[in-house]
Amino acid sequence: MRATLEAGGKEARAQLPLLLACSFAASFAQSMMNIALPQVADEFGVTLSTANWLVTGYMVVAATSIALAAFLLRRLGLRTVFFIGCGALALGSGLALFAPNFWVLLAGRLVQAVCTGLFYSAVTSFIMANSDPARRGTHLALNSGTVAAGLAVSPVVSGLVLTGFGRHALFALPLALAVLLLAVGFFRLREVGPRGTGAVDPLSVVLGLGALVYGLGEVFRDPLPSLAVLAAGVAVLGLFAWRQLVLKDPLLNLRPLGNLGFAVGELLVMLGMMASFSLSILLPLYYEGALGFSAFLAGALLAGPVLANALSDVVGGRLLDRWGIWPLVPCGFALTALGLAVVALAAGRPLLALVVLASAVAYVGLGLVVAPSKTTALSQLPPSLYAHASSINSAFIQIASAIGSSLFVGVLSADVLAGTSRGLARAAAYDAGFAHTMEIAIGIAAASLLVSLAYAYRLRRRRG
Q1: Using 50, 70 and 90 to split pLDDT, how confident is the model at 421?
Q2: Residues 305 and 359 sit within 8 Å (Cβ to Cβ)
Q3: Where do runs of H (alpha helix) occur along 370-425?
C-alpha cells in the first residue's frame, strides 16, 4: 500500500524536506545567471542576445525535461530520477565552473537545466500522489514558496559571489548543492509507489523550441535571416504538436488544450510568466548597464520585488477561493501595466526608489494573475485530465519564460548595438533600450488585461 505524507506515512513524510530542497536547488540554478548577462557578454565579446541563451536555452531544455519527467518517473522511479537530476546539476555546474569559453559555459547551463525540468515535475508529482487530499493544497503551496524563495535568493547570492569572486566561482554554489543533495539522498530517499510501463517517442524529444527562440532573439538585429529561422521554429513547433496528438503514448498529452476555457487560462499564465521572467532579467540589465551598479547591488534591488511576488501568490490563491477569477485577474494585469508604466517613466529620470517600488507593484500584479489563472484553467477540466494539464502548465511556463526573455533581451541588445554605433555612451544606449523594451512589455500587459476581462466575464456569466 502506498504511503502518504500524513499519519502512517512516516517514510513518505520524511522525504518531503529533501524534495523541497530539490525544488530550491532547481529554482536557484534557473535564475542564477539573470544578473550575470552583462559581465558574460563583455568577457566573451558576444551580444546580449547571444549571452541570453544562458537563460533562454536553459528554459527550453527545462521545458523538454518537464515533458520527459512523467515517462522517467513511470519507468525508472523517483529515486533514479532524483539521481539523474542531481547528477545533471553537478555535471553542468562543473562544466560551467571551468568553462574556458562561452560555448562550454552554455553547454554547462543546458546540462544544468535537466535538473530543473526533472525536479519541478517530480516534486509536484510526489506531492500529488502521496498527500492526503485535505492537505494537498498546503503541501503544494509549501513547494511553490520554496521555488519562490530560490528565485528571490539566487540573484542576491549570485550577485555577491560574482562581484566578489568572479564568474567561475558562481558555479561552485549549485555544485555544492548538488553534492549535498546526492549525499543525503543516497541514504534518505526511498522509492514510493509502483513503477509503470510505456515508451518514449525520440522524435518528440528532439523537436523543440530552439529555432523559435533564436529567431525572436535576433530578429531585431538581423531581420531577414532571423525571420527565416523564426518561421522554421514555428513549423517545428507545429510538427511537435501534431505528433503529440497522433501518438498513442505522447510525450506531452495536448488534448486538454481542446477545452477553450483551459486554453485561454493557460494563455493568461504564459503572458504573466513572460512579463515576470523578463522583468527578472531586464531590471538587472538596467541596473548594471544603465546605472553602472554591481551585480550584487542589482540582485539585492531585485530581491524585494520578487519576494512581494511570492507573497502575492499566496494572497491571490486566497482571494480566488473567496471571489473567483472576477475581478482578481483583470485587476492583476491592470496593476502590472501600471507598475511597468511607472518603471518606464522613473527609469528615464532616473528615480531609483520609484523604479524599485513600481517593479514591486508589477510583481504583485503578476502574483494575482499566474496562480489564479492556472487554478481556474485546471478547474475547467475533468479530474482525469489534471495530470496531463499540469504537465502542459509546467512546460508552458518554461516556454513562455524563454520566449519572453529572448524577445525582450533581443530588442534591448539590438538597441544597445545601434545606440553605441551612433556614438551614444554605453549607459545611455542601455537606458534607451530599456525604455523601448518597457513599451513592448506595457503593450503586452494591456492586451492581456483585455483578454482577461473577456475571459473572466465569460466565466462569471456561465456561473449564472
Answers
A1: confident
A2: yes
A3: 370-379, 386-421
